[in-house]
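Notebook entry, structure prediction.
Reason for the run: the old model in the group folder had no record of what sequence produced it. Starting over properly, with the input documented here first.
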Amino acid sequence: MPSVLDSLNVGLHQAFDADERVYLLGEDLLDPYGGAFKVSRGLSSAYPGRVWTTPISEAGMVGIAVGMALRGLRPVVEIMFGDFITLAADQIINHAAKFRWMYNDQVSLPLVIRTPMGGRRGYGPTHSQTLEKLFLGVPGLQVLAPAAFAAPDGGSGPGELLAQAILGGQEPLLFVENKLQYLLPVHTPASLPEFSFAIEGTPAAPIFRLAVQGAPAPQVTIAAYGYMAELARQAILKLAYEHEIFAELVIFTRLVPLEDQVLCAALRQTGRLLTVEEGALSAGWGAEVLARAASALGLHLKACGRLAARDLPVPASGPLENAVLPSIQDIMQAVRRLVA
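New structure, fully documented this time:
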């Protein structure tokens, strides 16, 4: 099975091959280095005039890409670490996300900004954060996070999601890639025989639903995305085998605009919701998901909870980092509290 990293790399090559308007900007992208996490490897050799290695200026590279998009190109910006996307916030929030409205819908802005987020690698407080929640409330900006799952034919996988975002989008999009997720295999139903596996939503924003194969009806619904979806997948299997508690996992790939129909359909059966994310707890993605669920379901939502990182900087020390970030055991304990 290909890894998430391999899938994303293939998706980039497919986008470059399909449309000569696709360009890539970022730091240290040229071969043989191919980017800090190697997602961009091979591109500068195959398309030498369309991969631009830039100075260390996130605001500068995003600003240039905004102008390129306005002139009809389809630029992709690689921010080496997601922590530094804050340096480009002005270009993203006040320019890219607003130009279509400011110019009376006479322009489009097909810009994709890719960046790795997340901890568990000992990189310390300024290289381990999960900051996409800072951009979830920006009108005109989509936020996607690929999952390590795909259809039997490989469709709806991370690479296809990225290629579609690059080739089909007309608005700016933040594409969040978790660092530990890069090395995960891209699971398909054939590789997960212990799970029932369904794909809903749209090809541009698939929603994956997993439950333990042959288990009784789920008692709780877990909503997650990115690498936390993999930890939640492992947690629901352990909950079934060790505690006879049965959960369904709903995995989002598009964080905003948030489509909650699939989640609400699952909650009408279970009535219990746990959201799981790696970012800090306060004012996070899970809070919005719970608010949407409560508004849609009212008293049908019998119990709910949020699990996220503690509201602390991410430590460099491995044991302390593990204490701050949510784990499989944390997910299991949170589910057990909901069904108690």
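Summary: The longest strand covers residues 272-280.
The old model has been moved to the deprecated folder.
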